Amino acid sequence: MSQEKPSGKLQLRTIAMPGDTNSNGDIFGGWIMAQMDIAGAILAKEVSQTRTVTVAVEGMKFLKPVKVGDIVSCYGDVTRKGNTSITIKLEVWIKSVLKNLTVKVTEATFIYVAIDQDGKKITLKK
Predict the structure, then answer these.
(1) What's a Pfam family in this record (predicted)?
(2) With respect to CATH, is domain 9-114 assigned 3.10.129.10?
């Protein structure tokens, strides 16, 4: 079932460019995933107030293709904060200005771990 509005807070907004396409002219899924990781990292850093790294991506589902010129918006919401990790649900919505259409194109859960300067796990501040 399709929802009408994004879930979470806007973390990142950009535009899909020709250099990010595959041979079919659609935007690479890997580029979309990278935008999601950046958006999630922003939220994880704000929540943790320290360095974080991505340790897992779960449930990645591509629902619709993204085209050149689409405005890509990543929304994030913290779903769990553990001792060392932060779990964030991310959604990507696109706005096709020419078609006056806004639609969710993918979602996934990203897990980040807080680390120190040596790359070792650290406990999150409460």
Answers:
(1) 4HBT
(2) yes
